[in-house]
Amino acid sequence: MVNFVRLNTILVRILKLSYLNLLWILGTLLGLVIFGIGPSTAAVFSIIREWFRGNDDLPVLSSFIKNYKAYFKESLLLILLYGVVGMILVIDYVYMTRWEFKLFFGILLFFYIISAAYIFPILVHYDLKSIREKIKYSFLVGFSYLQYTLVMFVIVGLVYFSIARVYPALITFFGISFLIFIVMKNAFMVFSRIEKESVNQTQLDLTH
C-alpha cells in the first residue's frame, strides 16, 4: 500500500511537471518570448519551491498566473540583463584567438553560470529589495556552496545528455520544468543549510 501511494505521488508529480512545462511555453509565447520568458520562469520556480516546502496541493494554474504577475517586472529585468551579458561573454569567448583572453572570458563565463543558476531561486525565496542585492547574493551562495553547484551541473548534464540520446521527445514535455526542478531542488537544499547554520550560530552566540 505504501509503495502504491509513493508511486501515485511520483506519477502526479510527473504530470504536474508536464503541465508546468506547457504553462511555461504558453506564458513565454504570451509575452512574445522576450517579455514572457522571465515571468514564466519565475512562476515555475515559485511553484516548485512551494512543493519542496510541502505544499503539494497548490493549484497549479492559478498559482502560475499569480506568480507570473507578481514577478513580472523583476524577472523581466533579470532575464534581459543576464541574456545580454551572457551573449556578450559567449561571443567574446568564441571569437577570441589569444589563449590568455580566451581563458579570461572562460573564467567570466564560469562566474556568470554560477550566478545564473541561483538568481531565480533567490528571486522567489528571499525578500531582497534590489536587483543588485539578488545578483550579489547569487554569487555568494553559488561560491560558498560550490560543491552543491558543481554536482548540480553534473546531474543536469548527465540527465539531459541521456534524454537526448535515448528519447529526445521527452524534452518537449519536460525540458524546462524538469531543469527548473533540479535547479530549485539544489537551491532549496543550499538555502535550508544556510538557514540551519544561521540558527546554530545564533544558538552558539547565545551560550557565550
Task: Outline the structure in words.
It is a single chain. 87% of the residues lie in helices and 0% in strands. By secondary structure, it is mainly α. It has one domain. Helix 1 (2-30) crosses helix 8 (170-207), helix 2 (37-52) crosses helix 3 and helix 5 crosses helix 8 (170-207).
How do you describe this structure in short?
The protein has 208 residues and is mostly helical. It is 87% helix and 0% strand.
- Low-confidence parts: none
* Structural class by sheet pairing and helices: mainly alpha
Oligomer: single chain
The biggest sheet amounts to: none
β-strand number: 0
Shape: globular
Tell me the fraction of residues in β-strands, as a range. Answer: under 5%
Number of domains: 1
Treating each run of at least 4 consecutive H or I residues as one helix, how many helices?
Answer: 8
N to C succession of SSEs = HHHHHHHH
Radius of gyration from the CA trace?
Answer: 19 Å
Average pLDDT figure: 93
In percent, how helical is the residue content?
over 70%
First-residue to last-residue Cα separation: 50 Å
Entry keywords:
single chain, mainly alpha, 87% helix
List the helices and strands and how they pair.
Blueprint: H1 2-30, H2 37-52, H3 60-70, H4 72-95, H5 99-125, H6 131-144, H7 146-166, H8 170-207
Helix pairs in contact: 1-2, 1-3, 1-8, 2-3, 2-4, 2-5, 2-8, 4-5, 5-6, 5-8, 6-7, 7-8
